[in-house]
């Protein structure tokens, strides 16, 4: 349907964006200025606690500084109501008191028929609910009672019963003068192949109404009461109202709950959703008996940037998770992914909630796996990597999967995460002697005692293996804090910081997002996100407090030199780690000169970076010839020599 010129402009002028958005959000009264139409709230499109969603009422546009969602009143209604463009226009026009232009006859006829079908579906909902109260539904009521559904739950979910008769619903609808065309068009009956009366689609089943994002009944799901029925669950056929691959059970109420901060949970069936809702997890949906489709995934992401997929603890549930990974990888965007919860073996969410309660389920949600870890699990679980060929096959498979990711930034982060997981799988393990851990693809090297000169080092005293990197990150973040105006100059380096510490990661993200706003605004954002102690904890660390640019806040040149130097050291250290990992992978038999040279050069690069910063003397050991050797270079050579000795012990020469 085409709209006359100027209609949309007038609609946008008449519609108050803040009123449209205000139905879905709670405004932050401290940041908002209603008089100027400058409104702020937590974003309705992704989970967050801070108010990063901005509405400019005068210009009629919104923008989220977190997930980067943007648009006008029409796009907001489309995204939050899950409707098409024309439906969004109709909703806004109705609210603004604007009559819609005349539509072409075919479009009007189609819309009118959809409305009629929806009315027939409502008649069917009421009829099925009445049948649940009859004597014929006694067994069904007993079953629902055993599943923990009381009268209030039956009322809330509008659960009904389809009697085991061929024309029960048909006759009831015909008694209300509903045409054959509408009954068949709604998928409530099927034509007879023998020339007789059409017969009911659902017979002898407990009925679950399926409603769309606007609350209209569009289909039914029916559970068979006969254990010998070929289909335990049966959905309505696809109609002008119902597209199974574009629908989710409980989507309307789940979206409302997710907008209030609850995590969006994706279960496998109706009863799981009902059980989750009853236990307080109200943002729960389910696909309709099939694997999640691309359209359903888009619907989920419109509700929550990181839905949690809850899967039954059996082989089928695991296979479903693995299929979903392949579907989701090409669609990933910054801040948009999936997390996974696998139920204990033999249980679904309903079983677990009944057996262990909501607290146990909450613990599972808190420990939900990122998608990259489930991808790694799929490619490695139950497999043995005791030969170069098997390791190469793993690398090839993982590369192919990562190439499915279209977003280069996400692909890079996946690559780094996979490298870290791969290094953990094949890294040298400490042991009393050098020995191959047969069947696990790992080798063990004898530990070396620390030299006396290292015992006083701040870095060596740390228990974390990544202490050096952690401390450098702290210095970098503190330097940016004292001079936020240099953040833009080092934006790419700041983005590349891995930040294994969650606090560092949060600080990094806040600085990237709010750095240009100035020191006061930056500190306010950090205070809001991490509380009053985060900055004090960062700046009070000894190695941070003695940094010259921290002692002289506002000195741009000093801060720039500090950041540039520390970023270079981080890059050199990571280069050394990567070379060691590749060298260990290349070592089969006697180490060749190429591997030796690569390790030496990488270690020297890391050593030069440290020397340029005048590191603490405890950062160095003394070699056998009296020369100073960095700890990283010593570690690299120890790893190489351990591997060579192992090769010799096996007859390598």
Automatic annotation (TrEMBL):
Its cofactor is Zn(2+). Binds 1 zinc ion per monomer. A zinc finger (CHC2-type) spans 43-67. GO terms for biological process: DNA replication, synthesis of primer. The keyword Repeat does not apply. It holds the Pfam family DNAG_N. One of its GO terms (molecular function) is DNA binding. GO terms for cellular component: cytoplasm; DNA-directed RNA polymerase complex; primosome complex. Keywords: DNA replication, DNA-binding, DNA-directed RNA polymerase, Magnesium, Metal-binding, Nucleotidyltransferase, Primosome, Transcription, Transferase, Zinc, Zinc-finger. It catalyses: ssDNA + n NTP = ssDNA/pppN(pN)n-1 hybrid + (n-1) diphosphate. Its EC number is 2.7.7.101. InterPro entries: DNA_primase_core_N_sf, DNA_primase_DnaG, DNA_primase_Znf_CHC2, DnaG_bac, DNAG_N, DnaG_primase, TOPRIM_DnaG_bac, TOPRIM_dom. SUPFAM superfamilies: DNA primase core (SSF56731), Zinc beta-ribbon (SSF57783). It comes from the Bacteria. Monomer. Interacts with DnaB. Belongs to the DnaG primase family. Contains an N-terminal zinc-binding domain, a central core domain that contains the primase activity, and a C-terminal DnaB-binding domain. NCBIfam families: dnaG (TIGR01391). This is DNA primase. It comes from Sulfitobacter sediminilitoris. The gene is dnaG.
